Each structure stands twice: as C-alpha cells, then as structure tokens.
What we know:
CATH class of the largest domain: Alpha Beta
Mean pLDDT: 87
Amino acid sequence: MRLRTLGLVVTFALGIPLAPPAAPLASFAQQPQGKGPRIGFLISETLSGQAGRVEALRTSLRDRGYVEGKNIAIEFRSAEGNYDRLPELAVELARLKVDVLVAFGSKAVLAAKRATTTIPIVVPVIGDPVAGGVIGSLARPGGNITGSATFAPETAAKRVELLKEAVPRITQVAYLLNPANATSALILPAMRATAKSLKLELQPFEVRAPKEFGRIFSAMAKGRVDAILVSTDTLFRANANEIADLAAKQRLPSVGAPEFAEAGGLIGYGANDAELYRRGAYFVDRILKGAKPADLPVEQAMKFELVVNLKTAKALGLTIPQSVLIRADEVIQ
C-alpha cells in the first residue's frame, strides 16, 4: 500500500528507484527527426492531459535503446480534445509513412484503423477491442492492430461494487459517459446488471464537451442522485479536476479511474495505465524488429489499482469501511 500525504507518495517497498521527471511538454512537438524509423503518436486529448502516458511510453522506448533524434523520430499529432480532427490527423501520419502508429484513446484507435490497413498500429490501452470491432480476437488479432486490453465492462462493474461498499447508503447513482466513445455502449449493460444486484438505480448522463459539465451536474441535482460514477474516457481524464470539484460541491461520493481519485474523487479503480503504456514500447520494439501485429496477441491487463482519497471522504463526512481501506493500493490523506 502507498500512503500519500500533502502531495507526497511513499511506497512501502525497498529498492524501488523513483521515476525521472517527465520531459517538458514543449519538447513533445519539437523532436529532432534524426535517422531510423519514425513512430507516430496520435493523441485524442491535449498533450498536457496525456503527458504522463506519453512519457511512460517514451521512457520505455529509451530503455529499449530507441533514442529520439539519434535512431528514431517521433511525430506527434494531437486533436486537443476535438475528436473531429482525429481522422485528418490519422491520415496525415499515414501519408508520412510512419513505421508504427501509436494511438492514444479509443477515438484515436478508430481513426487510425480507418486511415490505414498497412501501417502497424499499437494500442497501449483499450477497453474491449473484440466487442468494439477493432480486432478479431485477442490471440489472433489479424489485420494491423495489437496492444493491451483492460476489459472496461468488468472494470466498470467493479467500480459500482466498490462505490456501494464504501458508501452503503447510496441508492441513486449517476453515470457520466461520453456517447462519442464506442466503449460506453459496451459498458452500460454490465453496470446495470451489477447495479440491479446491489439495489441501485443507475442514471446515465451524456457529456460531449467540457462546456457541458455545469449543465449536467445541475441535471444530476434535479435527478436527486446521491453518487456519481465517471467512465474511463479521454475527455474525463483531461478534466478530472473539474469533475472532482463539481462532485465535491454537490457532496457526491464519486468513483472513476485511479487518477480520478488522485484529482479529488473519492475512489479510483482500474488498470495501471503507466504500466500499460510502458508495455506499449514492447509492441513497438517487436514490430520495428520485423514482427507483424497480426501475429502479436493482444495482452490483457493484469495489474489493477484501488485508490481511496480519505481527504475527500473527510470533506464529505464519510467514513470509509476498513474492508475497502485494507484492499487499497494507495490511500490519499
């Protein structure tokens, strides 16, 4: 378990080196071209919102001997949260004939898939690539796409369970989702089934842009919801602080991805994204050495983290049960 206090994280383990700080964001868009293969990074959200994931992948590439400006070049293309730009950015990278295209976010994956059938595409994190029609199967992806899957429906259902266990009194739960994310439709049935088994009523609220948050939270207040579940979506990741603040103002217990709890939400649960993005470098490496995506099985995320924000719990007047705390990988004081 890690205990975070006053912005510091203490890891209860020995011999684990601290990660180096991320490179300045300005350097992301100003990479020297160098010689050797080119890797395209297609990013749905802002560079700042994806900085941690980008740097995790870049660091892992460096660990494997790929140094930007020396033996590889990285072409960054960011939609800056405007999903409508993704198709043209994906086509732009395809025209550059990058050797590998890494897609950040489900919308970026779909845009990349439509842009090219020949350039290998690496997806460090995706909810359910089979049900979403991205690949044929995990063991035999086929086509030009491979990477890691987190199986979002099961993860979302687990978040419902954790929220109810942490705050037993809740009965009405709002589900914040982005309808532009195809995974949302896959998640909802699993969440409804879990909510029904726990005697919870689930109310979906759709958000397509940050400017809609205020209106949506007003609608939640009118709907008398007493908790909120935030889906895993690049839109919500990029605006986690605002969502957590709005939930706190309405005194709503909340659950989302691990970084959502770090931003001020009550509970965070999900796959360790940093690990998955670091693992993404493995697929890039294999492909650059001649492997075909169709022959690289899509891996399943194995490490999931539970984060509890006791500072938020205190502000909401909640006492988190020990049954939840003892399972937490990180407790924020």
